[in-house]
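tool=predict chain=A
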Amino acid sequence: RRIGARRGQARDEARRIESARGTVVTVLTGHLWLTQEGDDLDRVLGAGDEYALDREGVAVIQALDAPALV
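tool=predict ok
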């Protein structure tokens, strides 16, 4: 599944993704911080980046600049 096709994220806006495994996050513009439950690594994604969430539980994305389109 893909999240929020062309959904805008305001700067510093956080978004929870429940049951995240298998969700693909694609960043169209801006930069996002991404963290997953059970993963020690956080990630920063930029425009053109795509990341497939690989953990069960909750993931959180947050826009680092405005607006970020995901």
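The first strand starts at residue 8 and ends at 9. The chain is about 0% helix and 40% strand.
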